Structure formats: C-alpha cells, structure tokens
Amino acid sequence: MQLNQESATRRLTEMNMGDMPVIEIRPTPTRVDSDWFAQYKKLCRKFMESLTDSVEELAMMNLTQDEFMSLIMGRTLPQNISIRFRVPLVWGGKMDTDNLFMCWTFPQSQRLDRFILEQSDAQTVWLPNPAKKVYISAHNAAGGDGGNATADRLSQMAAQIAASRAMEQ
Description:
11% strand, 4 strands, 6 helices
C-alpha cells in the first residue's frame, strides 16, 4: 500500500499513535553483516545507558526502581519494552544509537510493525520517527503512580549515575 504523509498519519491515528511523527524513505536494499545481532546487543546497551537524559519519559513508563536502574545501567530491558530501529538496517539504516528509539512492545511496537508491513510493496515508505529516544503515546501518557515525585526521584538517580560515569572517564 502506497501512503502519503497524510494517509500515514491517519493510519497511525487509527492505531492510537497519531502523535507519532513519520519520515519518508526510499528503501535501499542493503546487505547486513552476519554479526549484526551481536553488534545490535552492544548498541542496545549503549543506548540504554544514554537514557539518563530521558527521565521524564521513563517516569511515564511506571518502572520500578530496580527496572529503572537496570535499564539505565545497560543491564536489562524491562518486560514489554522494545528498542527499535528508526530505519531498518536492511533498508539502509545505520548501526548507531541515533537510529534507535524505545517504546512499549505491546501495543506500540506491534502496531508499528503492522504499519510498516502494510507498506511492504510501496516505492516509498513512511517510518515512525519519534522526536525523543523514548516514545510514549499521548493516548497512553497517564504516567506513573508517583506523579512528579517519581520523575524527581528518577531524575536524581539518573544525575548521580551520569556524574559517576563522567568521573570514571
């Protein structure tokens, strides 16, 4: 299905993600290295460690303190959270943290997969491209139980981790 920007946005709105920005690309079939998955795992760790600047979005995900710490330390991705490529490697995307974003696996990542697959026969494809590293749909932006206190607590923890990393370098 060939979409234009308006129809792509309308389709995402039908999927309760009307606030998701999109970019238009011409898929360029690209050979992917055989060790791409090992590279991707390392890149995901690096990406998770970079999330100390995304505390407000992470607070909206209602993570426990242990999940939050494991995430920003690059150890473990919490259940039902996915790290996605903005532009898939097979279409010319780069193995770079700037080409990644994080969202809920269900329902957002599953809906985005469907959105992309619906365009599989198109000359140009509209891909999700959230403005920030973490995508929280405005439809689901209820936030955590702690309100501002949760964001404040996570901000303090993230600042301490970022400061300790700076001292180690």
